[in-house]
Amino acid sequence: MAVLGMAMHFTEARYLLHYDMPFNTHDFLIGTPIWAVGLFMMLLKKPNFGGKRTVIRNSILHTSKYVLGVYLIHLLIIIYVFNIATMLSIESIWLDIMIVPLVFFLSLLITRGIERTPLRHLLLR
Predict the structure, then answer these.
(1) Distance from chain centroid for Cα 17
(2) Within the chain, where are the H helices?
(3) What is the b/e burial string over 62-71, where b = at least 16 CB atoms within 10 angstroms of the residue's CB?
(4) Which pLDDT value is given to residue 110?
(5) Which residue among 23, 65, 76, 112 has its CA within the 20 to 30 Å range from the CA of 104?
(6) Which among 36, 12, 8, 38 has a CA at the least distance from the CA of 26?
(7) pLDDT tens across 10-26, in order?
(8) Position 123 pLDDT exceeds 90
(9) What is the per-residue pLDDT across 67-98, written as a single tens digit (0 to 9) for each?
(10) Angle formed by the axes of helices 67-87 and 93-115, nearest 10°
(11) Residue 103 and residue 83 in contact, taking contact as beta carbons nearer than 8 Å
């Protein structure tokens, strides 16, 4: 069911390209709920999925408590990075390749910075 939903999602997104709709703007299409239901059914079948401790403690990989902060700030960082890249006339494949790790690490850095300042008590209640 998840594979069927994913195929429907990407097929509809590809179809919408014929109407000059960019592919990366499609968050929710007809196949998306089918994809989600299939994923949740798969997770229900394996209730212990993710129960093993494979994450190394006290490392950069241990970022689970920062997920919400990174999620909330990443869009702002993306907008700034693309604006700066436009001002510097950077429009290459390297920008597309580097945007994901760059935005992740900047968002993580800002989230950790907020945690260590007095703003934490104001912003995170």
Answers:
(1) 22
(2) 2-16, 32-45, 67-87, 93-115, 119-123
(3) eeeebeebbe
(4) 92
(5) 23
(6) 12
(7) 898 888 888 888 777 77
(8) no
(9) 888 888 999 999 999 899 889 888 888 888 88
(10) 130
(11) no
